[in-house]
Amino acid sequence: MSQDAVETTRGLLTEPAVLRHGFLDVLGESMSSPAPTFAQRAMNSPFVATVYERLWRPTSFYVASGVTTGAEQRRAASALQVSTARRLLDVACGPGNFTRPLAERLPHGGLAVGFDISEPMLTRAVHDNSAPRICYVRGDARSLPFADATFDAVCCFGALYLMPEPFRVAQEMVRVLRPGGRVAVLTSYTPDVPPVRFALDTGARLIGLTMFDRHAFVDLFSSAGLVDVAQQTQRALQFIAAAKPG
User: Fold this and answer.
1) How many Cβ atoms from other residues are within 10 Å of residue 104's Cβ?
2) pLDDT tens across 142-160, in order?
3) 25 phi, psi to nearest 5 deg
């Protein structure tokens, strides 16, 4: 992470930020990450942050979807058209396991901002996935500290089902997306088969996850005026991409 990336990102923020542990923090040390459920507590655990990128995520997401991490990253880069994006925002970036590979595909002069509320995850991101064109920011995704139409590409992979207000976060993602920009999310999926839906919903609730049907984010993006809405469902996960009209 370069000083240029830090200062460029600071200029994009609508709230003051302090540089701590290598990332910009708009929340401050006094505000701890909210973690009322088991799943949210796990994402704020230093231990999970350490094993997440190499063990936890690749294994759990492959089981949930049958898609490898490498294939996920290639799909994300294609859906977001990152080769032509100047600014990319990775919401709930965790330890930066998608932020860095996406940043590497940006054109010369591009900037990737990894955004998360978890200090352990961001500390890990700075340690493991820093690069000259990346800056990490700590904040609350329910109120993204960026002006309207700031980014050419916005994504959130594997986190909306953890959040207390996922649709508000998705609306914020659309708000900060520029006309002509692309948005993509990877989140939970429950098929419209009553026994399967009941089993998945029950298990998810026990650990604090939300299962979404096939219409939730497709309808949200369509209602927000996005176009070219495309969806892929795989086992217990769904990938949705869309574009904001130019």
Assistant:
1) 15
2) 999 999 999 999 999 989 9
3) -120, 115
